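#onboarding

Welcome to the new folks! Below is a worked example of what a typical request in this channel looks like: someone posts a single protein sequence, and someone else replies with the predicted structure as tokens. Don't worry about understanding the tokens yet, we'll cover that in week two.

Example request:
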Amino acid sequence: MMDWTAELQIVGHVLLACLFGGAIGLERELAGKAAGLRTHMMVAAASALLMSLAPATIDQIASSSSPELVGADPTRIMQAIITGISFLGAGTIIVQRGRSVEGLTTAASILLVSALGMTTALEAWRLAAIITGLTLLILGGIGVIEQRIARYRLKKPSTIEPEPED
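Example response:
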């Protein structure tokens, strides 16, 4: 059983992960994407909670059974989180007729927010804050550059010569 201080520490991890995930989710919400503020906050919170519970889970299982039977491998928890998040991200990807694909950036941001939750649970708060800022820069700043490139492509004359008429 966990004590109050350990539980409060986990709550802190989850709240901080919500803050980081929420910052990215707000950008997605303002961009009108399907997965927005709440989704990103929930993904970050779930990842932080699962990572934070891992040590207590291992301790509890080890104390109630044979300690030598319990193997601690935190990368398994990360792998399980990433697998689950990948399915969630895949649900945001839509393939339109005419080969247009939408939702890839939102799917990637969901995966990244999951990693931010894990980073927060591992108490690498500065790293999580820096990656959150970098992600917002990518989503906002690079998005503007992509729009300019798209407008340039529309204005650029075709390099294909028309076929001669008979």
